[in-house]
Each structure stands twice: as C-alpha cells, then as structure tokens.
Amino acid sequence: MRRPSPLPPTGRAAPAADSASEPDVETSARPLGTGGAATVVEGAAARGGVATGSVTESASDADEQPSTGSDSAAAEDRPAAPVIPLGSAERPAELDTAAGQGPAVETPDAADPRVGIREVWRAARARRRALRAEVRRFTVRQRRRRAVWLGVAASIVVLVLLTLGAAYSPLFAVETITVEGASQLDADAVEQALADQLGTPMPLVDESAVKAALVTFPLVESYSLEARPPHELVVRIVERTPVGSIESLAGYTLVDAAGVALSTTPQQVAGSPLLTVDGGTDSKAFEAVGQVMRSLPAAIRAQVTAVAASTPDDVTLTLGGTNTQVVWGSAEDSALKAVVLQSTMAARPPESVSVYDVSSPRAVVVS
C-alpha cells in the first residue's frame, strides 16, 4: 500500500514536479452556472481512487474580473489541497470532516482482550448443550431399542433369581420319598435308607449319599431320581434279573447275568435253575450262559431247571418235567434261536421230544 505524499508547506503552491508525477486522468468540462464555467477534474473515481480536482475560472470571468496583485497574493496564501495517490485505501480525516461524515469509527476486534473468561465459558457451554441436543435427537431410536433390550434382560435376570431363590428355599424341601420298580426288594427298607434326605431342598439332594445307600441292596442294578415339586422325591429302581443258583459250601447263591451274588440260602430258590459252569462266574462260559438266559422268553425260562456249559460254545439247557435237552451252542444269534425254539416247541411239545438242537437256527434238529 502506497503512503500519501506529504502535504506542501502552508502558503506555498505545490511544486510542479508533483503535478508532473501524477498519472494522466480524464477531464471533462461542465458549466456550473450562467455567470461562468468551471472545469472539474474527474477520473480518479473511475480508477478506484479518490477524486481530486481544482476549480479554475474561465476566460470570460477573467475578462470581467482582471487579475490583480492582491488576488495573486491571496492565491499564493491559500493552502493547497492534499494529494492522495490513486488506488490508496487511506482517506484523510480532513476529507471525511469536510464531507460531513464525521471522524471514522473504529470497529472492535473479535479478539478484544476486554472479553472476559466468563463470557467464553458461557459460549462454550452453550455450544456443548447444542451438540448434546443434536446427538440425542439423532440417537433416539437407538436409545429406545437399547432400553427395550435392557428391560427384557433385567426381567429375565429377576425371574431367574426368583426361581433359584424359591428352589433353594424350604418351600421345595423333600418331604416324601417314593420307591418305584421294586418287586423283589422291600420298598420300605429303601425308603428308610434314604430318610436322611428328608427336609433337603430338591436341588441340594446329595446323589452320592443316595448311591451309597442303594449300594447296600444287591438287587439294585440301576436307579434314577426324579423331583416332583413341591415335596416329593421319586426313586426308580431297576432290579437285577437272577439267571440261576450256584451251589457252594455255603449253600445256594442266587446270581444274575453279571455274576453278582444276590442272596445265599441253604436251599435252592424255587424257580431258579441250577448253574453248572466251568471256571465260575468270572469265565467266558458263564458270560455266555448269562446272555442265553436273558434272551429266553419268560415262558421258556420258567421251564428251565438246569444250565450247563464247559466252554462258551456248548451251552445246554434242561427243561423240567420231561428232562428234554436243548442244545444251544454259543451265545451268537441268541434272539433268533429263542424265536426258533419257541415255534418248534409249539409244533413239537417237549413231552414228545428228547432233544432240541438249535445251535444252527436255520436248520433245527428235533429228536
């Protein structure tokens, strides 16, 4: 930005060099009145600068009013107009005062140090509030969905806690023990053995203690527990099926297919066949005998009075009353052999037959 030229000294005209250095401007003459005409210098406004000029008298005015020495002196004493460079943004205060606009007013700076910390803090807080309001407006659906899921989860948790609290409270304590599936066992004896579980909440029933109590009953092959709220505990028992009695020095021992001794009596138990097996209950022959006896239909098993086996492949049954022999062979295809023997006995009763050979179930031999 160019600085304005210094003002000429008071009472003296501007040097000719200054006027010569000014750029060329367009001029136009416009009559000012009837008495004379004045020439106004224009063109600075067209170029973005500040218009300056001087008014001179025309030739006619010069004729009517001849110049005198006093007029020349007055002209020399009149102060010259300030020179303003074209394109300059600065405007002297004298011009504004002359135009009636008054002095220029200063615009307060945005970073005015007189702005206090409180005003800045209030503006920042208002901005944060507006930002939070916009965030809440755009996330209202997400917040509603989250509230629904939280409500459902809280309901489930409360329901689970209430259920657990009720289940582990005395409201669901065991007051009755029911034994099911006992035919050879004494159900009252089993209930007495499990009496220590009375008063215990059902989820806290000690299964290991129940097992220890039922192990003392050899006839129990397996068992299961069932809770029937609010106060009943059901014990389902699967008893062992005896396959026969083994004679020993102590008497007759009733055993099942696994060789578990169920009871020992001085006399043979009625309805149980006498087992004669080489190797005892731990041999393969006894295992084959157990499989054969468990595969027989109840009607045929009730007629068997003796079973003999020296190896797993030569199991032989004896039917009571007629002493009819049934050659069974190995324990393979025992289910098929049982069906074939049943149909053969229906066609040829044991009274008329001495031997049924079903060791080959597809080629039965009757004699």
UniProtKB/TrEMBL annotation:
In terms of InterPro entries, this protein maps to: FtsQ_DivIB, POTRA, POTRA_FtsQ_type
Q: Which UniProt keywords apply?
A: Cell cycle, Cell division, Cell membrane, Membrane, Transmembrane, Transmembrane helix
Location of this chain's protein in the cell: Membrane
Q: Where are the transmembrane segments?
A: 147-168
Bias type Low complexity, positions:
13-22, 37-56
A Pfam family that the UniProt record links to this protein: POTRA_1
Q: Where is this region: Disordered?
A: 1-79
Keyword Lipid metabolism included in the entry's annotation: no
Question: Domain POTRA, which positions?
Answer: 172-240
**Source domain of life:** Bacteria
Q: Extract the PANTHER family matched here.
A: CELL DIVISION PROTEIN DIVIB (PTHR37820), CELL DIVISION PROTEIN FTSQ (PTHR37820:SF1)
Q: What is this protein called?
A: POTRA domain-containing protein
What organism does the record attribute this protein to? Microbacterium pumilum
Q: What is the lineage of its organism?
A: Bacteria, Bacillati, Actinomycetota, Actinomycetes, Micrococcales
